[in-house]
Amino acid sequence: MLRLGVIGCGRIAQKKHTEAIIKNSDIIENVAVCDIVSERAEIFAQKITEINLKKPEIYTDYKTLLKRDDIDAVAIATESGNHYEITIEALQNNKHVLVEKPMALSTFHADEMIKLAKNKNLKLGVCFQNRFNPPIQELRRKIENNAFGKILHGVASIRWNRNKEYYQQAPWRGTWKYDGGTLMNQCTHNIDLLIWNMGSEIEEVYGVIKNFTHPYIEAEDFGGAIIKFKNGSVGIIEGTSNIYPKNLEETLSIFGERGTVVIGGLAVNKIKYWRFEGEDGHPFQNLPDPDTVYGSGHVPLYRNFYETIVKDQEPYINGEEGKKAVEAVLGIYKSSREGKAIKFPVEFSTLEML
Known about the structure:
alpha/beta, Rossmann fold, Dihydrodipicolinate Reductase, domain 2, 8-stranded mixed sheet, 6-stranded parallel sheet, 14 strands, 32% helix
């Protein structure tokens, strides 16, 4: 049984981390929860007890939680700007870490997190749960089996709406210190899927960011980019939180010599187009939409995290994988600020946008 502490009991924690813990209660025991707002921690703890699980102990200071010897691992779901500090503290206290996306807001911080986990022989996993979506898994199998032939280009399109009320609910949202803008917050899942499925490292990126309709936040509400990959393929990113009047789509498209796939839906979970040379039809004809844009991947993500610890393997989305989307977004930010294409690797931080 993996003894788990949860740090940060806000929106994503209450919607998806509770579900993942409850549905993995055969292998995971949530022994402690922490939030600076004790009422949020209490709500989280009560959700855990709804199916007669033992109520976790409540903390408002994560450092006190991390001192407990009976905790094996922690899930970190605080505001993004605190992921680095809490992860480092957890690793120093010999805890395995599963951290929400984005893992950090600086490439230097991401590298430090990865390095410390390796030096301490601890697991560092990142919550890019949409990789577990069945259509995405089937797409990945097609790529690994070379069904596309040469991959030519891919597109990540995130056309969502975030209104003033959304930002007022949590004042850290849209700030350079704690969040970044729509690319770093809303779009990193699809950017991760694009990079993962293009099958190559990024060579350079040219990007533009704008704030069109949200003057009350520091960061962008629109970002567009062209990515040149080392294998010669091209990636296109379009991310916005300006769609009127509500979320429109989140779509991943991969185009190859012998195949085309477009996956959309509420959380990149439904096949919109699936064609390969010599094949008819596509799998997963009638998959239901998940209940939120967070998808349904936290449950298998948690199970994989448990298995990597007990089997001493690398998490499905480890620190190195988690860094790639962060670096891509930071490259776009740097490109927009400097008005030119940026070569990779990138050393940059959201704080440099202030």
